[in-house]
Amino acid sequence: MTLLLDASEAARGIMASHITIPAKPGAFTIVYPKWIPGEHGPTGPLNDLTQLRISANGRDLAWRRDKIDLYAFHVDVPAGADSITVDFTVLLNAPGDTMATRNLAIVNWNRDLLYQSDINSHQYFVKPSIILPHGWSYGTALPGPRKSGDRMDFDTVALNMFVDSPLDMGRYYKHVLLWQNGNAAQWLDAFADKPQDLEFPAKEVAAYKRMTPQALALYGSRHWNEYHALLTLSDAIGFQGIEHHQSSDNRAPDDFMTNPKQQVAGGDLITHEFSHSWNGKYRRPDDLTTLNFQIPQQTDLLWVYEGMNQYLGDVLKFRTGIGDPKTYPEYLAAVYAELDNEPGRMTTPIIDTTTGAPYFYVARGQYSSLRRTAGDFYSEGHLIWLAADLTIREQTGSRKSLDDFEHLFTQPALTGPITKTYTRAEVEQTLNEVAPYDWHGFFERYVYEVSPHPPYDDIERAGWRLVYNAKPNDFIDADNAEEHSLDYWYSLGVHLTSEGVVHDVRKGSPAWNAGLADGAKIVAVNDQQFDPDALEFAVKSAQHSRSPIALLASVNGWYGTYALNYHGGLRYPHLVRISGRPDTLSKIVAPH
Ligand SMILES: [Zn+2]
After folding, report:
1. What pLDDT shows up at residue 482?
2. Residue-level pLDDT at 321
3. What radius of gyration do the chain's Cα atoms show?
4. Residues with CB under 5 A from ligand 1 (ion)
5. 242: CA distance to ligand 1 center in Å?
6. How far does the centroid of ligand 1 lie from the alpha carbon of residue 241, in Å?
7. CA spacing 20 to 30 A to 30: which of 67, 418, 434, 559?
8. Which domain holds residue 32?
């Protein structure tokens, strides 16, 4: 098939797809991609496909949508035709899903594609082309680019590789060569809404240049030829990361590269997606690997695909210096405390959050700490794989680590972008080759069964202990600054916005016991009009008083008073050193 995407009007939020698909006379079905790799769910944005026209031999054909599978369209191909032509308009922007601004756009080809149903996307080929907005640059891992005016033509590639090779483009751009060795290279292709956001500090660029050397040391292998870290810097588009085999689709706020605070809160964005080239793209769960984009993906092993990758992406963030390695224990304290204080974990094991991932990713609404979230198998994955790393180190007298597992798991040392599937049994067997241990029982305990606490003993054996005190946690602070929120989760038991709107109440906490509801807006604290300082003052003062903290809050126009019996002061998590024990955490995040 061929696909020409006219993206010349991307800045107004539309593109036009022009596709030719080989076909035989008779009944013929084309489909719109539904299960999107990297999004782990049936998220193909069907409502963005508009103005569909199908023709053959220059004459329009009547088409009908399937009554059951709304992603499928049926036509009758006339005698004498050997292909059909498909044209449609792609809408790029919807609330919470912005793909184009005045100055840049993200091309996820699955949005621009209709293809023959029931084909094997690994053995079905497409020749892609795009017409760029005049004067814009682009970045993509698609091979063989040839330019002719504003039009780019690329080599013919397998359909799965095509969908796996997004393209970013924009008026203001910066292409940074991060690493090169012979024909192999890693690029950072950045596109910004505002040109000043491309003035990257030299220190930042130097840290990002350490990504490939550190990843090669971690994995001992490479399965890409030319890797493009695509990056949009746009408040309108927001924060998102989607992994691909030889590229990643990274989306961050305007000042992501220029404001050091952004790197504290989100500096694992690109390292996480880059690490997926090995873990998720080269090695992929067997039941997550499908022949085409209509077949449901089974997501149960995301505790390896995403969970292990959350750990490794974070480790790379610190080993490269994108994050300060000295801050790792503080980060770990924030991750651990959040999961250890999540009531939903008392009923719902991690395996349910991965198996139900397509639903958890889009779940919205109140009391997410009772439901649990898709984020849980990422952050708890970090803790579980840290525990696995520490267990390997302990079992082998510090001679081996999870790095040795990665070397075995991602061998041979060099291939192109192919996929090797795995099962849980293979993961456990490979771990056993590195360090004999009851790995099956380990994952049963922390992944497959209800686990009242995330793994903790290993953190103590690594020389650190979790404490709570009044000193703010740097990472929680950075998140709060980014999200304009306040964190009283470990004291009163509420998350709230800096405007006082409650976003979740921890079951069993003083706020819960006082009857406070998710969604309430706190308007007064101890009779003072609410503001962040008034609330902080009230929590501090209550330490020296027996009176409850009195909140006045409104829900849907009704006011209520709430008496919070809490006298423990401000409370935030930290890790502190256990004297006399070696500090293994520092070793883990030191550059390799
Ligand atoms: Zn990921």
Report:
1. 86
2. 97
3. 26
4. 306
5. 7
6. 7
7. 418
8. 1-137+154-159
Using the mean position of ligand 1's atoms as its centre, give its distance from the Cα of residue 84 in Å: 37
> Ligand 1 centroid to 306 CA: how many Å?
5
- Please report the pLDDT score of residue 96 as a whole number: 87
Nearest-angstrom CA–CA distance, 53 and 516: 54
What is the Å distance from ligand 1's center to 51 Cα? 34
**Residue 330 included in any domain:** yes
Q: Are 101 and 12 in contact (CB under 8 A)?
A: no
Q: Is residue 295 located within the same domain as residue 439?
A: yes
Pairwise CA distance, residues 510 & 208, whole Å: 44
The residue length of the chain stands at: 592
pLDDT at 238: 87
Ligand 1 center–CA 385 separation, angstroms: 14
Domain count for the chain: 3
pLDDT band of residue 265 (cuts 50, 70, 90) is: confident
Average pLDDT taken over every residue of the chain: 97
Q: Which of 263, 139, 271 is nearest to 213 (CA)?
A: 271
pLDDT at 252 over 90: yes
Q: What's the pLDDT at 418?
A: 96
Crossing angle of the two packed helices 474-483 and 328-340, in degrees rounded to 10? 70
Are 436 and 554 part of one and the same domain? no
Q: How many angstroms separate the CA atoms of 555 and 163, rounded?
A: 45
3-state DSSP call for residue 46? helix
pLDDT higher than 90, residue 422:
yes
Instruction: Please indicate, yes or no, whether residues 451 and 508 belong to a single structural domain of this protein.
Output: no
For 491-545, the pLDDT digits (tens) are: 999 999 999 999 999 999 999 999 999 999 999 999 999 999 999 999 999 999 9
Mean pLDDT, rounded, for 176-184: 97
Q: What spacing in Å lies between the alpha carbon of 501 and ligand 1's midpoint?
A: 30
Token output for 546: 């027996």
Distance (Å) from CA 272 to ligand 1 centroid? 6
Q: Does residue 422 share a domain with residue 321?
A: yes
